[in-house]
Design brief:
Elements lengths: L1 H30 L6 H8 L1
Length: about 45
């Protein structure tokens, strides 16, 4: 039973970390929509 509980705890922690990281990524993405688009950067490279 202990292993089962430990597994649940690990899964919950992992899910929380992924969710928090995803939220941070979304926030950064929304913040970067205003600045110059990545197309300009790609154009310079090409």
């Amino acid at each position: 039973m202990f292993r089962s509980w430990f597994l649940w705890l690990t899964l919950m922690l992992a899910a929380a970390s992924v969710g928090w990281f995803w939220l941070l990524t979304q926030d950064l993405r929304f913040s970067r929509i205003e600045p110059e688009p990545p197309a300009a950067s790609v154009d310079k490279g090409g």
